Amino acid sequence: MATRIDGKAFAASLREKVAEGVATFVAKAGRKPGLAVVLVGEDPASQVYVRNKHKMTVAAGMESFEHRLPADTSQEALLALVDQLNADPAVDGILVQLPLPKGLDENAVIQAIDPDKDVDGFTTASAGRLATGLPGFVACTPLGCLMLLKDQLGDLSGKNAVVIGRSNIVGKPMAQLLLQESCTVTIAHSRTVDLPAVVRGADIVVAAVGRPEMVKGDWIKPGATVIDVGINRVPAAEEGKTKLVGDVDFAGAEATAGAITPVPGGVGPMTIACLLYNTLEAANRREGLA
Ligand SMILES: Nc1nc(=O)c2c([nH]1)NC[C@@H]1CN(c3ccc(C(=O)N[C@@H](CCC(=O)O)C(=O)O)cc3)C=[N+]21
User: What is the pLDDT of residues 162-206, one digit of tens each?
Assistant: First the structure.
């Protein structure tokens, strides 16, 4: 039976460490680190995440600047806000909540963020820095996955890692991080031939495809470490109710894996904790304290 990796507890202890780092920063810089979050429109899931981010930012001792804009906000107005935040000395980190409402050019807005304030790690500058090993910001979800993996396994070098999914915000940066840790990395995706066989060779599986319970228990190599990035809302057994499941068939994989993250309570909480971690890092760098 696999060890359950408690991402919720790990995230709570990371947020405590960040809070200590914030106190040190305040003593030296005479101000709080600041995180600006921009939410456009009324997407209910986004509102929940933004509220949680705000609460945890404040709890870590940071300044939280929330900018809520109507769904019909123009591209120009949004870009003007990003410019204003780029120029604001009290703002160390900028996060524009995705997805943006239809009609807005997501890529143009993300690329407008100053890479030194890109605590989401979504700009091409951040992606390029990661790929070439330069200091920058790593996207929060893959960074959180890496922290959990290192905590579980220690040295990752020489391990066979299979990342399922090739998105710019999870799959690709995850593969870069694992490569940096000297794993042998395979990126699998919808066109991969015989995915079960590919996954069976993996010491580390990171599932980030957004398909509920797609990765089956009998694909998992005995003792492998399984990181489930998926957060899929599906109908529950009880009529009219829903529940969250990952991209991995948890019950099946738990029997074979060495360790596995649950959903919820695995990778999700790490994402916000890493956002705070990156924001403190941004503040320290901007003040020459890093
Ligand atoms: N610019 C931008 N950056 C993001 O990082 C970003 C974004 N846009 N848009 C939306 C996604 C989603 N996301 C999550 C964060 C925390 C949980 C989380 O804490 N999940 C809990 C469960 C929450 C629940 O019950 O719904 C868990 O897995 O245990 C999930 C998802 C950040 N995102």
Answer: 999 999 999 999 999 999 999 999 999 999 999 999 999 999 999
User: 29-122 and 140-269 share one CATH topology?
Assistant: yes
268 Cβ closer than 6 Å to some ligand 1 atom: yes
Which atom of ligand 1 is nearest the CA belonging to 122? 1
What is the average pLDDT value for the chain, to the nearest integer?
98
Q: Is the CB of 118 under 6 A from ligand 1?
A: no
140-269 has which CATH code?
3.40.50.720
With cut-offs at 50, 70 and 90, classify the pLDDT of residue 290: confident
Contacts 24+ apart (CB under 8 A), 46-50: 46/97, 46/99, 49/97, 49/272, 50/97
* Domain ranges within the chain, ordered by starting residue: 29-122, 140-269
Annotated binding-site positions for NADP(+): 165-167, 231
Closest approach atom of ligand 1 to CA 139: 5
pLDDT band of residue 126 (cuts 50, 70, 90) is: very high
Whether the ipTM is more than 0.90: the answer is yes
CATH 3.30.230.80 fits 29-122, yes or no: no
Q: Could you tell me the pTM of the whole model?
A: 0.97
